[in-house]
Amino acid sequence: MRFTDIFIKRPVLSCVISLLILVMGLASMFSMNIRQYPKMQNTTITVRTLYPGASPAVVQSFVTRPIQQSVGSADGIDYLTSSSSLGMSTIVVHIKLNYDPNSALANVNSKVQAILNKLPRAAESPTLIKETGASFPALIIGFTSNNLSPEQITAYIKNVISSNLYSVDGVSKIDVWGAKEYAMRLWLNPEKMAKLGVTPLEVRSAVLRNNYQATAGRIKGKTDFLNIIMDTDLQSVKAFKNLVIKRYKDRLVRMKDIAKVELGAEDYDHLNTLDGKKAVFAAVSTAPGSNPLTVIKNVLRNFPHLKKNFPHGLMAKISYDGTKYIQIAIDEVAKTIIEASIIVVIVIFLFLGSLRTVIIPSVTIPLSLIGVCLLMLSLNFSLNLLTLLAMVLAIGMVVDDAIVVLENIYRHVEEGMEPIPAAIKGAREITGPVIVMTCTLAAVYAPMGFMGGLTGALFKEFAFTLAAAVGISGVIALTFSPMLTSRIVSQKVINAPFVKRVDKLFAKLRNGYSNVLSMTLENRPVIVIATLIIMVSCYVFLLFIPKELAPTEDQGFLPAIGIAPSTANLDYLLESNPALNKILSNFPAIKDYFIINGRPKDSNIMTGLILKDWSKRKKTQMEFTPLLQQKLSSIPGMKIFAYAMPPLPGVAFGAPVRFVLLSTNTYKNLYGFADKLVKAAQKSGHFYYVDSDLKFNSGEVEIKIDRAKAAALGIDMQHIADSLGTLLSGAHINYFRTLGYSYKVIPQVPDSFRRSEESLRRVNITTATGKLVPLSTFVRFERSTSPPELIQFQQLNAATISAIPVMGFTQGQSLEYLRSLSAKVLPKYIAYNYAGASRQYMQEGNALMYAFMLAMIIIYLVLAGQFESFIDPIIILVSVPMSIFGALLPLFFGATTMNIYTEIGLITLIGLISKHGILMVEFANKLQENEGLGIQEAIEKSAAIRLRPILMTTAAMIFGVIPLTLATGAGAESRFAVGIVISSGMFVGTIFTLFVIPTVYSLFGHNRSNKEIATS
After folding, report:
1. At residue 96, what are phi and psi to the nearest 5 degrees?
2. CATH code, residues 353-495
3. pTM
4. What is the pLDDT of residues 318-349, one digit of tens each?
5. Buried b (16+ CB within 10 A) or exposed e, 375-407
6. What's the fold here for domain 497-544+846-1016?
7. pLDDT digits (tens, 9 = 90+) for 295-323
8. DSSP assignment string, 329-350
9. For residues 921 and 509, what is the distance between their CA atoms, to the nearest angstrom?
10. What superfamily does domain 657-691+789-843 belong to in CATH?
């Protein structure tokens, strides 16, 4: 008794196994997490160090460089970038994908702690910020008010809103954009200070000595303890106003005598707007392991309760909800699963002509797709866009085995056998091919499941889900399908009028195919030459098809960045706001927007454009962006560019092309070559935005100190630096407390005293004798220009060229163009590298192509073991280039690009098209062995008999992915990329395969009939 006989003779056992798969799968499905993409750990650690008043060059030399050198040796680092600007060092440590973020943070922190003693005394302790997960928040809430100041709104968000939202499980971080933290501002008047003989350091000293947080302890009574509370700190504007600084000519000089004291903001360099009002934004990010849909749903559910307790006049608006795109995209894929299932059932019906027989392969779809959820849950997989996409592709695959089993049993019943004996014989005959086909398809995805990098992290769940679904379908095809066929297929079903018409049609088709195949085999050299030409064409296509990491997705949200000259202040930025508002408010595709002035840098404007629903606009984001860019470029004095959101998790936020020039030479030298490269790229017409982050446009006033004169007056360099720092830097002295919270105390001269170096000349410095002398006594001023920030990449001086290509010019083409341009423009001592999305594109490179080759090798070995032959697998795999040729045709003519999704489609085609060869070659071998047919006669008969199941499985797959090729709305671009490759590859590949495999078999196949005769 064969394995399949048991289930045909025991129908209840067969049903029980299938029901167990269904019930356990359903239970698992409802227990699984739902998210956009598989879980991955994408971590960056930012080391930020304040060095108030220090120039970029000083910050780089004394802060950035020692920290970089130490941190660079930490484990788990992919690459380092750094920025040294006025008073600030920022080092961004990019951690390798899926490296444990806590270990990375501990490693980096230990390296930072090791060099703290090497940092300047005036530098503050470095702050480490770990960011894990998505590069953009999942939710942005805008807060506005007609009666509350931005400082009040900021305090309420940080002290009330944030603490409530952090209580929602899965919320990892809440950033306050446009935050204006309270600060005690001491606006020093240099003229009054000079008149009353007060120096900057005396102001600083008075605050330090009189705003002091004391910890006196407690006293012990007979029966209790009493805590000692000392009134040593200042807690109000009035207290700071009355602070005594010194005695001057028999009078007390108080703070109010030389400064305007107010409860203000830490800085005044940025301003946000929402609906034309000043605004502050709360940006909510979710934890990497959480379900963002559930997290943001719980946040929004909790929000109405918070609004009830808002202060009078505070209003909140959801400015951006990233989960809307995720939910719509998942809904679209789920809808595609239903559509594909219906289409496949209709296709099977048209091939079989009987509704009863359609049931047999159709039940495989829900059993396989639901059953695979059990394995997914056990492996901690989630229901995400990629695993759901795997299920869409599986629909056309899982019916294949059942169709092959059904067709073989059907043929025996048609020849006059009774249903049960026909089922037993047919199942026995087809067990081998079914096992081989199932193993082949599963083997295709094995390399993908074990890949590293971004591709491996993304597609591991996809690969194992698809392989498992196919494996379950193979089990169902051998246990449930034969039993069901034996109970449904009968002479009555076969003799039904519509069935007979369908059978007659296929009989004519089979006869016509046999005639054409016979003529083909008489002209085998022509077929061989055509096959070789197709193989060469595949290589040519691959050279010319545009490449990118992933297709740009229309996610319903479009960020834009405006870049002003680096010396631009808030007033400059605000001048461009009216023109920007006019463009955005009148643009038809934009539903809403917000503007953040002074972010991410002081001279930048960040804008978030919320687009209308996909169904309510005529053009996609990619189609209308050039027009929007044209309008944005018309704003004078500002370079504004819009760019798409990252198409994949783990892909850096920002421009898709980031080409980094590296040198050990000076920044001045590097700037010249970067500028040449940018100008050449601008003239090329390939980019609608291209620029370098290295600029020599930051005005500086260099103070040249006559050290001899200063020494004669008893004034040292530290004294001068501390005095000017107190007046100009905006650095805080210490903290004060009010209403249970602590805020900074910041002395600084008002803007009116910082407009020119002339005001600096009148700053008084105390000599060794206590006399006040103006700064101009021993210094002179020189104007110069320098970079506003000094960028380094992997500890080398760097200039990053960021670019956004025009529509039709891909990321891969852009990088190739910049590489070829660099070879012409750059000297040999300037190297180049990649950052952001470009780095990920280069790192992934041909990873999937290697997986493709490895899949071919694994399938070859699997087939060799199954067929006990090294020749038969080669014959079967000849069909692969035919299919790849068909898949590359639409890409060559511009339907889409070569990207991570089309490469997945190409790998999938290996297993799909190999099934045809397996069916033909396996049956031809049996015909030789059992009936003594010659090679050519056996393959002709095998091809004719297997024509119907081949066409049926091909049609099921092609029509099953039609919903992908016709996809619209959220996530349509990636679904289309997979669908077009599989549909065109299967269509063209099947047509060629029906003639190429018989030709190659007739030339190289084993003569098995002679072996049998010899054995006899």
Report:
1. -60, 145
2. 1.20.1640.10
3. 0.80
4. 888 888 888 888 888 888 888 888 888 888 88
5. bbbeeebbbbbbbbbbbbbbbbbbbbbbbbbbb
6. Multidrug efflux transporter AcrB transmembrane fold (1.20.1640)
7. 889 999 888 888 888 999 899 988 888 88
8. HHHHHHHHHHHHHHHHHHHHHH
9. 21
10. Multidrug efflux transporter AcrB pore domain (3.30.70.1440)
